[in-house]
Design goal:
Blueprint: H1 14-20, H2 30-35, H3 61-67, E1 73-74, H4 79-86, H5 93-99, H6 168-171, H7 199-207, E2 212-219, H8 220-224, H9 228-231, E3 236-237, E4 242-248, H10 252-265, E5 270-275, H11 280-283, H12 295-308, E6 313-318, H13 328-338, E7 342-346
Parallel strand pairs: 2-4, 4-5, 5-6, 6-7
Antiparallel strand pairs: 1-3
Helix pairs in contact: 5-10, 5-12, 10-12
Length: 347
């Protein structure tokens, strides 16, 4: 029974629907032949291959059982994680620990620090402090990690919980030599391509010989908000044996939190920072190639993301920002010192 009654705009008679449906495009359904079942049922444009008596969807039980439990596409966004991100209940413990060591400079209106402000000294209210609160610099005798700020980032949430047994992971950090290595010498690397390098395209390139693949540029702020469309850029096919994701952002807080989020929730072999995007939408916010002219922010981002990741961190830059003014040769040694494992240069 349809609850909408006569107001319903859909057909409820399968026979009537099939009578008005366009003819099938072929005799065989590739989904049914591959997986033993077609999720589209009567709406499939190859439906005659898997529709039986009474228009019932046929299932090849033996073939479907072979694929049971196998994840063809990984790095999906679970509903529970999406709700945590939207309600700001996800705890960024490592990121908050790193961000507490940064020294803000210059407060915003009303004493509230926003991500658009520069961060370099202790003359401004720190993130999460209210009006009239005065931060203490580490040089003045106060331990910068004595108190944990709000894990939600809004200044009103509870502190990071510290109750429970102390484990080795709490006190031991991976040394550079113990971190996962990115072995891509002599391999063909398919560079990340915005609006083009989606999962189907990468599958085709893998079939033609690509060894290393990387997802499209994903905006950190959208990932932290739990946007499904942005998380779709992180999806990984099971045939992508060496796979990385590329992140775009302009500030250490969002980039570091996003790096920790992905490090704990998805399967990835490396994380790449986009410091080469020239479009105005990204450049005017201080991201993309604009980071090449903001060395302090650039350094804080690389060091922060490297401190929370268990996989190698790579950086994509340009030869320069201004025409005929190349600065890449001056920046690459610094990026290496900050902790990046690889730098790629695009003109």
């Amino acid at each position: 029974k349809c609850h909408f009654g006569p107001r319903c705009r859909f057909l409820h008679d399968v026979g009537e629907y099939l009578a008005g449906k366009p003819s099938d495009l072929g005799q065989r359904c590739v989904l049914f032949d591959t997986f033993g079942r077609c999720p589209y049922g009567v709406t499939c444009r190859f439906g005659r291959a898997h529709l039986g008596d009474g228009h019932q969807n046929i299932i090849n039980a033996s073939l479907a059982q072979q694929w049971e439990g196998k994840l063809l596409v990984r790095n999906n966004l679970p509903k529970e994680l999406q709700q945590q991100l939207r309600k700001r209940k996800f705890i960024f413990q490592k990121a908050e620990e790193y961000l507490r060591g940064l020294q803000p400079r210059g407060g915003g209106k009303g004493g509230k620090v926003t991500e658009e402000q520069e961060v370099s000294d202790c003359t401004a209210p720190q993130e999460g402090l209210g009006d009239g609160d005065t931060p203490q610099c580490p040089e003045q005798g106060e331990d910068p990690q004595a108190e944990a700020p709000s894990s939600r980032g809004d200044g009103d949430g509870p502190s990071i919980p510290t109750v429970g047994p102390l484990t080795d992971e709490d006190v031991t950090k991976l040394r550079p030599c113990e971190r996962k290595k990115l072995e891509i010498q002599g391999k063909l690397y398919l560079a990340p391509l915005t609006t083009c390098g989606n999962l189907p395209f990468r599958r085709i390139c893998k079939r033609f010989g690509a060894d290393v693949t990387c997802g499209e540029m994903a905006v950190c702020t959208n990932l932290l908000q739990g946007q499904s469309s942005e998380w779709a850029l992180l999806k990984r096919h099971h045939t992508e044996d060496v796979f990385g994701v590329q992140l775009e952002g302009a500030f250490p807080d969002t980039m570091t939190r996003c790096a920790e989020l992905l490090n704990r929730t998805i399967e990835v072999d490396f994380v790449d920072i986009n410091v080469g995007c020239p479009i105005d939408l990204v450049y005017k916010k201080g991201g993309g190639c604009a980071l090449m002219t903001r060395s302090n922010k650039f350094e804080q981002i690389v060091r922060g993301m490297n401190s929370v990741l268990d996989v190698p961190l790579t950086v994509k830059i340009r030869t320069g920002v201004q025409e005929k003014v190349n600065v890449a040769h001056k920046i690459i040694p610094k990026i290496r010192e900050w902790g990046a494992s690889m730098v790629t240069v695009g003109e």
